[in-house]
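#dry-run=false #mode=assembly
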Amino acid sequence: MELANFKTYFLEQCELSKDEIEQIDHLIITKTVSKGEFLLKQGEVCNHSFFVEKGLLRFYALNEEGKESILQFASENWIVSDRGSAYFQQPSTYYIDAIEPTTVVLISEDFINQVANINPNFRAHNERLLQNHIRSLYKRVSLLLGASAKTRYLDFIKTYPDVTLRVPQWMIASYLGVTPESLSRVRKSLAKENFKPY
Amino acid sequence: MELANFKTYFLEQCELSKDEIEQIDHLIITKTVSKGEFLLKQGEVCNHSFFVEKGLLRFYALNEEGKESILQFASENWIVSDRGSAYFQQPSTYYIDAIEPTTVVLISEDFINQVANINPNFRAHNERLLQNHIRSLYKRVSLLLGASAKTRYLDFIKTYPDVTLRVPQWMIASYLGVTPESLSRVRKSLAKENFKPY
DNA sequence: GATGTACATTGATGTATGTTAAGAAAGAAT
DNA sequence: ATTCTTTCTTAACATACATCAATGTACATC
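#status=ok
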């Protein structure tokens, strides 16, 4: 088992030593899902966070009319979860599934506690994650409230250049809160303005 | 100094004893602002959370064209802050000002640490706040992505019945991400459908 | 190579929401 | 009470975006 991304993440982001990482090695549980497979469905309690070692996930809601709204993408080195569901032990109202064949590391409460026992830094890292998450959600809400579809699209490709190239456009449209047709027109208009993302 | 709301909050939400609340009494700092006064402006680091003892605050962003987007209201017993700004010690991109004459309790990192020393419950409470916040932001994003202005308005008055009656409608419009004129039309249409909120 | 499936684009048209402007209603100030 | 200011509503018009339907394109599969 390699898990180069996961281990680098622990070394650099969580400031664990190589030695400490070896200590937790036996706690690591991975799961591999194929394209379209679910890691979380509405109604289930989301008992894990998912660190994406390789692949691409989406986190989305389904409204009463069956319309999907993508809240987040997660490619390599991202963590995705409905942590509130785990925290409050309530069924989630969201779905997580795989856009590409994906390998994730399962992060349970138990795992977090055990790692925190080995190195207390990990708790601080955990809080940093939450704070960052809130920040990004604030920005998301601000843009949805105040910016046009075009502005939101430009922000998206700046923020998630890797994801932009790996997902179908109708998913980006769903993330932006517009129809695929509208996104296609936004792109056409940008092309006319001679816009070059790369 | 009364602060009945703040102390009840600590008793019931944070599970401190009356005795412990007396111990922290001397740490409590309050601030009173009149209508229109700011507690936070873009560019400042937001070093406090604000517990609303009495009154009503708004938390909003200003985009490049000068358009306000209200992210949150905070009436009695709510806490509002750009905690990310404090956490990362970066200037905030948001504003907080008073819609009514308001008295707040200032909650600094120092305050949190001292209270946590007296009763460790407080840290757990703190994390619960963050988790709750993320949940509400997820819901907010889902609605902005997938629901009409009318649906969002109905959700608003259900979620914030007290706020609905205390703020001008153009602020609710700003919270919903529509113009005051649109909100007026939504209300008219609801009236035609014989909708009664109360 | 032929067929099927998923996705992207385009055009015609409809609808929700924005814009502008005016007036009505409600509050605040004098 | 009178005036001034803010807020709300309404209407006419403009625009962004949605919907529906058709076509194009890439790719898989057979």
